[in-house]
Amino acid sequence: MKLVFAGTPAVALPTLDILASRHEIVSVITREDAPQGRKRVLTPSPVASRASELGIPTIRANRLDDLVTQQVADLQPDLGVIVAYGGLVRSPLLETPRLGWINLHFSLLPRWRGAAPVQWSVMSGDNEAGASVFQLVAALDAGPEFARLTRTIGAHETSGHLLEALSHEGAELTAKVVDELEAGTARSTPQQGEVTLAPKITLEHARVDWSEPADVAFRRIRATTPEPGAFTVVDGLRLKILEAAPAYDTAAVLPGTLQNDGSRILIGTATTPIELLRVHPAGKKPMSATDWWRGLAVGQPHIADIPATNRVDTP
Length: 315
Fold this sequence. Notes:
The protein has helices spanning 13-22, 46-54, 66-75, 117-123, 159-183, 214-223, 289-294, and strands at 2-7, 24-30, 34-36, 41-43, 58-60, 79-83, 101-105, 113-114, 128-135, 145-152, 197-198, 231-234, 237-246, 258-260, 265-267, 274-281, 287-288. By secondary structure, the chain is an alpha/beta fold.
């Protein structure tokens, strides 16, 4: 079939690759080049770069407006496929492809509709995550579902690891649905169950509150790794937490208090301490927690910030 593909980040690449190997992608739609790094260099999105490698014409747009709609209409596609584009598809673009649009969404719909389903799934302590392929409609992630897959969330798995796995498994699922749509055998069913929302993750979501129980604090660390990056403030300086784990085999430590037990750097929570494994101090390179500890002032107690207000809870 003739496809239009809309996506932006790296998690969309497996689906783009598999569809490009089976169908004709007449255009890719992705967001405009964005500033990256300390020097804020304008950089194409991962999807834009891959489309260039594949020789696929690309439409760069942050809004799917009338101009984009006309460009898509001129291509006369059979189907639109969207994976993490980062914007809404509205009428009349919704109806422009002959078969409309399908969306690969990284959740078990209708749970976690919205921008950050994997992060909220991890943060909320879900045992399972998944991916759903559904018909795009005007309402947020509400269309009838063609197919889904389910995956157990590992006890130490981060959002980054989970999303990477789902992006590959979801690509196969999406390709299967596209093939069924081409053959006329695809069947969809209305979504069933409680609707929960997964709004965009902000930096405040990534700020660890050490007055919370260890399992809650650890879920927050895992959920916001690698983006936007879990952090705390120690001695007035921001400390990004790259790797950590609950230390179940040690005595309790006062919430927010840092302690070196001789081989590990521990930080207290409301229950079990959490061991810091790898950290990224402000203005320095990532390093082991023990190397970071050696650079701190000797003989002085080190306390991690505990937010007094504005604790961001799960929706």
